[in-house]
């Protein structure tokens, strides 16, 4: 749109006026891109201008948290942080996008590949993984991080080749591109690949020089893609003579670069990917470089590097090379065991997913091995394979009756696994009878992680509720409580427990029954009986269990009213709470509550009034009974009756007359409540209006205020 100079001035004046009046929303998108230093435009400093913008009435700011100087930010009304997918989000996304079998395969791959786990939390990265999954090997156990990125890049190159209108004799369609052999695709995208490799090292050089990432005019989708293209460039320079102008000019300089940076943490994944891309002599030569000088004098980081590279390159290495690297890792593990054999040590390296799990398994059975150390190391891993779980189960059986600490460590390790095979079930049930309380408690915790348990296991857990140790009882109760539905025989066992002498046992049984969505009438009656227990915790648990039932049968409601009217208020109070949670009570229960309202016990009467007040509509017989309660000798009962009546939308004439009479009550609270109720009625009888007029002369100002 073209504006004349006068129109521009008018437009600027209008904007300035609107801004002063707070009529403009300013959106400062990417504030961190310009607020990292005192930048200028045409010699004018930006910082004062930014501060002026940030002081406006309506401002939306987007920025990376680390990229903004908080001293220039005003106090924010609302601050939000963009976070990645949670573990559940990832699972839900995979279930919605992929076929069930592919979804499970991707989930397992993410679980056992630590470097992918953080990437999968980023929606765009997870989408790329799903996009490329059908092009990966059908044997997901053989998929490495390098293989995944090679497939992702190939899929993206196919898409880019079509978009860039690449040609091989004739223009390429997407179908032809998909069928191109790898070597031909590499030639087709050679220039772009070279440039991406150049950018990968350029970005690294700029970061090393201290330049802020916000100053880049281009970005990789994720740091791992930059690492992938950097690794590709290194591999290319190791295999062929470099071209003039390449970032690395000779193979010797490439090797020198590897030697100089092999222990640089920022290059860790680069070296893993280099190992994953190389084959045969080139791969053997690369491992020689890693093993050569300079050496890691302490050894820790060197073995992390070897384990990660072995994890990526195992399929390309010959057996002798694999054995050589594994021997070094095993020796390092044995050294750490000797140094840290203090009863609580574990190997950080062994806990990494890229460390060969089979080395830990084999070491457990070797003479002189510290099994507790190795098992604690296994517990650090995100998930264990079936062979490891079988070794743990065998260890638990071998040390039955001895080495209490080791048994507890094994069960605790099993408990950290997200899923366990069926074969572990009986071993864990047997562990519930272990002599050591910690083993019993840990076994109950592990069983509680299973969504469905057989009846025999549930009965064993119920037995755990009688354990002498509180921790075991608590773990058993929590395990049972995590079962969404308990079978009827188990529920009947819990009903029997409500009569037990041990108060904690009774309390736990009531809590577990309360977690079931539907209970039989006989079970509900047993819970009502538990309201009469001497122990407050048992009564509270029974009341909560009853209160969680959306609908209670009339017989149970009558029993609750009976409990409400008991002299022991410790019984009556939880009964009142349960009745108050019922949205619609039958007339017989309402009548009983009115009777309780007119009783001598003030606590009972007040509770009955509160329960009645929660009912949206009361029958006429109940309203008439409430009319009588307006004449009760206790002023609290009279006030409660007026409050209950006030919650009804329409009241009969007889009730309105009774309320008009309450305006003469001796207690000012009753008079005030009566005036409030009459004020809510759209139509009043003449006698009620006259009573309200008379109340204008009331000696209490609060009563007069309600009348007005």
From TrEMBL:
InterPro entries: ARM-like (IPR011989), ARM-type_fold (IPR016024), DUF7068 (IPR055496), NACHT_NTPase (IPR007111), P-loop_NTPase (IPR027417), PBS_lyase_HEAT (IPR004155). GO terms for molecular function: oxidoreductase activity. It holds the Pfam family HEAT_2. It comes from Entomortierella chlamydospora. It comes from the Eukaryota. Residues 104-140 form the DUF7068 domain. This is Uncharacterized protein. Residues 19-98 form the NACHT domain.
